[in-house]
Design a protein that fits this description.
Largest sheet of chain A: 5 strands, parallel
Order of helices and strands of chain B: EEHHHHH
CATH topology of chain B: Cytochrome Bc1 Complex, Chain D, domain 2
CATH class of chain B: Mainly Alpha
Distance between the termini of chain A: 35 Å
Number of strands of chain B: 2
Number of domains of chain A: 2
Helix content of chain B: 40-55%
Radius of gyration of chain A: 22 Å
Distance between the termini of chain B: 28 Å
Radius of gyration of chain B: 13 Å
Number of strands of chain A: 24
Structural class of chain B: mainly alpha
Largest sheet of chain B: 2 strands, antiparallel
Number of helices of chain B: 5
Helix content of chain A: 25-40%
CATH superfamily of the largest domain in chain A: FAD/NAD(P)-binding domain
Number of domains of chain B: 1
Mean pLDDT of chain B: 79
Strand content of chain B: 5-15%
Strand order of the largest sheet of chain B: 1-2
Number of helices of chain A: 11
Strand order of the largest sheet of chain A: 5-2-1-9-21
Structural class of chain A: alpha/beta
Low-confidence stretches of chain B: 1-8, 10-20, 25-35
CATH architecture of the largest domain in chain A: 3-Layer(bba) Sandwich
CATH class of the largest domain in chain A: Alpha Beta
Oligomer: heterodimer
Chain lengths: 426, 117
């Protein structure tokens, strides 16, 4: 295994030397010109950290973003693809502007983290040293959390909780349904990515079926949780737009989720066995593998962080942002990841360039579409407190709101999407 | 729907009427001063929160462009959200924890910052 140099790395990665403003992978030796920040994961958390460190340090820090995908598909707004409100292309974003912003984007899978040597090993064996490492790998799915489910079963019973091919498979199956068919969604236990997501997705299922003129089709959500995000306004909306079509079952009703059988399409609970024409199984979740393999996760499967900085509680040279972190009162969302990334970027610059550090502030808003022009939202501000990221002021959509408020929420969510993807990807 | 235009920020009220907003802005306008001596570095950091939504605003966006906004007007609007005299709960929540120094720092930043997109 060899230490990667600027030249051999750029050849390896297929990157143009012209995009590499400074030597990035020089060995960690005395007298090095610039501190090195390496970011693993080019989603809402990772790409935001990379862009903000590069932008605000104005060339004083070498920033490398390691992301295997050349195009990132956002999980946020993928439910609008399910509902037919957006196409898949509108959810895809490349890293051209991230590169133009001074970040060295390397489309290679990161293999492992050597915390003692402060270096990453890439798939292929090359090593990348760092002074500060940011890990933002998102989630992995706990396949065995639903008996009978597996990675192979996901080709029959899609989870679609990671965007792209899985979401396309879900939509293909949705569009093939006949009137009278049954959709069963197995909702995930806490904590999971996008708390309102399963319920917005059920709304989008119902919207598609209603639009196709289905009168007898039904959607059953079997949920391991006794309650869910924005529950009162979701359920009001379901009754208003899709009366009798969506049935939500908490553990008191179904008595426990016993498992699924991909061969027969069955979803079994203690209460009943359902034959689903479409089963959408969203399993329990944990931090991405590279974070767990690096020893950054606790028994929950997610990574504890310092709420003042997003720094790992395990390693002072590593920051964890986004869905892989334990975010206290914050939900796991793209908005939250983007917000956490800005705190991490600010602290990283302060540590490496002696720039000023400010008290951490976080915020989040999650919009959910129930039906055309009927959009609800929940949000809050957050700050460090009681050893965690603690919620401050918050708000949530109310039952019985005027239609123009809900319509305005939808327009706002579309504007937000445009804004946040520009903030993440340039 | 009525539309209250406050300088460069176009606000479409949903609960309050544009007349009520205009009246509120008039009541506070006398107490607003430009943010001379504001903390530019603090403004730059705090602005990152705004960038999640405001970086790509166009003329017809529900989320307005705030780049190039005059400091006096910027302060007026943020104070109005903080006082819940303007209706959007997202902005009310953002403004709720901003003290006068924070608002002045943001006003200074956005008056001269270049819109990135």
């Amino acid at each position: 295994m060899t230490e990667m140099t600027r030249r051999n790395f750029s050849l390896f990665a297929g990157a143009s030397l012209a995009t590499l403003s400074t030597p990035l992978f020089a060995p960690a030796v005395l007298g090095q010109a610039k501190p090195r920040v390496v970011v693993i994961g080019g989603g809402p958390g990772g790409a935001t950290v990379a862009r903000y460190v590069a932008k605000d340090s104005a060339g004083a820090v070498d920033v490398t973003l390691i992301e295997p995908l050349k195009n990132f598909t956002t999980c946020f707004f993928s439910n609008l693809y399910v509902g037919g409100f957006r196409d898949m292309k509108s959810l895809r974003h490349n890293y051209d502007k991230v590169r133009k912003g001074g970040v060295n984007v390397v489309n290679v899978m990161a293999g492992a983290v050597d915390r003692n040597k402060k270096q990453i090993t890439l798939a292929g064996g090359a090593r990348v040293p760092y002074d500060r490492l940011v890990i933002a790998p998102g989630i992995d799915l706990k396949w065995d959390s639903v008996p009978g489910y597996s990675e192979a079963a996901a080709q029959i019973m899609p989870h679609a909780w990671k965007p792209g091919a899985q979401t396309e498979l879900l939509v293909k199956k949705l569009n093939a349904l006949k009137d009278g068919d049954l959709i069963v969604m197995v909702a995930p236990p806490n904590p999971f990515r996008c708390p309102p997501g399963p319920y917005e997705r059920a709304s989008m299922f119902a919207h598609v079926l209603k639009k196709k003129g289905h009168k007898k089709s039904k959607i059953i959500i079997v949920d391991p949780k006794p309650a869910f995000s924005k529950q009162a306004v979701f359920m009001e909306g379901w009754e208003k737009h899709y009366p009798g079509m969506i049935e939500w079952q908490d553990p008191k009703i179904h008595g426990g989720i016993k498992g699924v059988d991909p061969k027969t399409g069955q979803v079994k609970t203690d209460f009943a066995t359902y034959k689903a024409a479409l089963a959408n199984v969203i399993p329990a979740q944990m931090a991405g593998k590279i974070a767990r393999d690096a020893g950054l996760a606790d028994q929950s499967g997610f990574c504890p962080i310092d709420p003042e900085s997003m720094k790992s509680k395990v390693d002072a040279n590593i920051f964890v942002v986004g869905d892989a972190a334990i975010p206290g009162d914050m939900p796991k969302s793209a908005f939250a990841a983007n917000s956490q990334a800005k705190v991490a970027a600010m602290i990283i610059r302060a540590e490496l360039t002696k720039s000023r550090a400010f008290p951490a502030r976080y915020s989040n808003t999650c919009w959910s579409l129930i039906a055309p022009d009927d959009d609800i939202k929940i949000g809050a501000s957050y700050e460090p407190g009681e050893g965690k990221i603690k919620q401050g002021t918050g708000f949530i959509s109310q039952k019985g709101e005027a239609a123009d408020i809900r319509k305005q929420n939808y327009k706002e969510s579309v504007d937000w999407y445009n804004g946040i993807v520009a903030d993440i990807f340039g | 729907m009525p539309e209250a235009t406050a300088g460069q920020i176009s606000i479409r009220p949903t609960l309050s009427t544009s007349r009520a907003i205009a009246a509120y802005l008039l009541t506070i306008a006398g107490g607003v001063t430009a943010s001379y001596g504001a903390d530019a570095e603090l403004g730059r950091y705090l602005s990152s929160e705004c960038m999640t939504c405001h970086g790509t605003a166009k003329a017809d966006s529900t989320i307005p462009n705030i780049f190039g906004l005059g400091q006096v007007h910027f302060v007026e609007v943020l104070r109005a959200y903080r006082a819940k005299a303007l209706p959007n709960p997202v902005m009310q929540t953002i403004a709720d924890r901003l003290n006068d120094e924070d608002i002045a720092a943001l006003a200074l930043y956005f008056e001269t910052a270049k819109k990135p997109n």
